[in-house]
Write a structure and sequence with these properties.
The protein is of the alpha+beta class. It has 3 domains: 4-261, no CATH class; 264-329; 333-464, no CATH class. Helix content is 24%, strand content 31%. The chain has helices spanning 55-60, 65-71, 85-90, 121-125, 153-163, 175-187, 220-233, 266-286, 293-308, 322-332, 448-452; strands at residues 4-6, 16-18, 23-24, 30-33, 42-50, 93-103, 110-113, 128-147, 188-199, 210-217, 241-248, 336-344, 352-357, 365-372, 382-389, 395-399, 409-417, 428-434, 441-445, 458-464. The strands form 5 sheets. Strands 1, 2, 5, 6, 8, 9, 10 and 11 form an 8-stranded antiparallel sheet that branches. A hairpin with a 5-residue loop joins strand 15 and strand 16.
């Protein structure tokens, strides 16, 4: 079977196709004499997978880098919810759950190239033609798990590894899985974006009675039930939606006679994943600032240029790198000063708790001052929240979660920091620990040794701009 690409409305057998942009070209580029199989065999697969690299999500959806960039927000097959870069970057863990059912295509069809008079054969024909369609069903769920408290990340990863084993052909909901799911519910927020492509009838070009629907959930067990049922439905013939187009090469047609030289986009497509990564990072930054629009257009123009001149993919792009742009954005955003201080515990002789506030408290012992953000829309930041028990002198400090989520606690302060250092911007490191015998907090200037050899009862560390960094 040849190369396959996602089905999109308007596709026809014999139509020209541009694989770099995944766009349609002239109809009837090739005449196809079909040999229909009324009851073709099918194969099905069902699995879950941990996603480490963002571009893997696009590849799972069989979207090319060029198509994702050129069709972002315009093409129906470029699902911007599934490809949400900000969500991927801010999630602690990302998994995909996938069920794929594919019916076998005919290998007996006959093909004949049609010579069309044109001065722009690459734009007219593209580099491939649509030889056939694959029917079946596709269930895809992107699972984003975000820790409520970064100090619980290690436990969360272990729980997720166990919980995700319930998906798949042999996956089961064991007691161990149930405990893992419960742990995830306690320690994380879960967002699941589901895309289902299926059909219940075999009539019509698109499988008849078909549906492509998107929904959101936070229930891992409910998603398993959906995925299991989707997998079972294949045996009763419920999945006959046109999923993919099978592409053919013009050069393989006996009467093509080198009518033109189709572009070879193989290397250009591989090189363009860097453009895709840059583009989606800029899309994430766009939530902070709209100035990135000109850079988006620059990248899109480059993609169009490569579609017409594949050799241009070898040239270094001339747009500013996202990391450099992010530094410019961060340096332009106003920070707020926060004051670390030791606060005496009432009715005690020498007990105190450390807290970080926007003002210097009367009677408190000042420790140090640093700039941080008082809003949380910046990609890569996490909230730090200090709180006190409503009835009693017990204190707490969380990262990645507000203290208001704890029973009987009131919040004293909150601000946003970086969990990792940002070169040339956020390199000042501070730590938070707990007093061994009481629920009192300690804050202190930290360094690499606090990572390699954590202090006793150390809770977490964070990074902020230095006090003399530009705002």
């Amino acid at each position: 079977m040849g190369e396959v690409v996602p089905y999109k409305a308007g596709m026809q057998r014999g139509q020209g196709y541009n694989t770099y942009l995944q766009s349609l070209c002239v109809k009837d580029a090739v005449t196809i004499e079909r040999h229909d199989d009324s009851n073709p065999p099918f194969k099905k697969e069902y699995y879950s997978e941990f996603i480490e690299e963002y571009e893997k999500i696009a590849k799972s959806m069989r979207i090319s880098a060029g198509a994702a960039v050129s069709g972002w927000g315009q093409e129906a097959n470029v699902n911007v919810d599934i490809l949400n870069r900000s969500e991927f970057e801010t999630s602690t863990l990302t998994y995909e759950v996938k069920v794929l059912v594919q019916h076998q295509v005919s290998v007996l069809d006959k093909h004949s190239f049609n010579k069309i008079q044109t001065t722009t054969p690459h734009a007219t024909y593209g580099d491939r033609f649509i030889a056939d369609f694959i029917k079946g069903g596709h269930f895809y769920a992107r699972v984003s798990i975000t820790a409520k408290n970064s100090s619980e990340t290690s436990e969360l990863k272990q729980s997720a590894e166990v919980a995700m084993t319930m998906y798949g052909v042999s996956g089961k909901i064991t007691q161990e899985v149930e405990r893992a799911v419960s742990s995830i519910k306690r320690n994380a927020s879960v967002k699941i974006t589901i895309i289902e492509s299926t059909g219940t009838s075999k009539s019509g070009a698109s499988g008849g009675g078909y549906a492509v629907k998107a929904e959101e959930s936070s229930d891992l067990l409910a998603v398993k039930e959906k995925a299991d049922q989707f997998y079972k439905d294949a045996d009763s013939g419920k999945h006959s939606y046109v999923l993919f187009a099978v592409l053919g090469k013009y050069r393989n047609l006996s009467n093509f006679e080198s009518y033109f030289a189709p572009f070879d986009y193989q290397m250009a497509s591989l090189r363009s994943w860097a453009l895709f990564n840059d583009f989606t990072l800029y899309k994430a930054i766009e939530t902070m600032i709209k100035a990135a629009i000109n850079i988006f257009e620059n990248i899109r123009d480059r993609v169009i240029l490569i579609s017409e001149h594949p050799e241009a993919a070898k040239e270094d792009p001339d747009h500013m790198k996202p990391g450099d742009f992010r530094l410019e954005v961060l340096n332009s955003i106003q920070t707020k000063l926060f004051h670390a201080q030791s606060q005496p515990i009432p009715n005690t002789d020498d007990y105190w708790t450390d807290v970080i506030l926007t003002t210097k408290g009367s009677g408190n012992q000042p420790l140090f001052t640093f700039p941080a953000f008082d809003f949380g829309d910046l990609i890569g930041t996490e909230v730090v929240s200090f709180g006190k028990k409503k009835n009693g002198e017990e204190y707490n400090c969380l990262i990645g979660e507000r203290v208001t989520s704890l029973d009987d606690y009131k919040e004293l302060s909150y601000f946003w920091v970086f969990p990792d250092s940002i070169q040339k911007f956020a390199m000042e490191m501070y730590g938070v620990s707990k007093v061994p015998t009481r629920n009192y907090m300690r804050v202190y200037a930290a360094d690499q040794s606090d990572i390699e050899n954590p202090r006793p009862y150390q809770r977490f560390w964070f990074y902020v701009p230095s006090a003399n960094s530009p705002p």
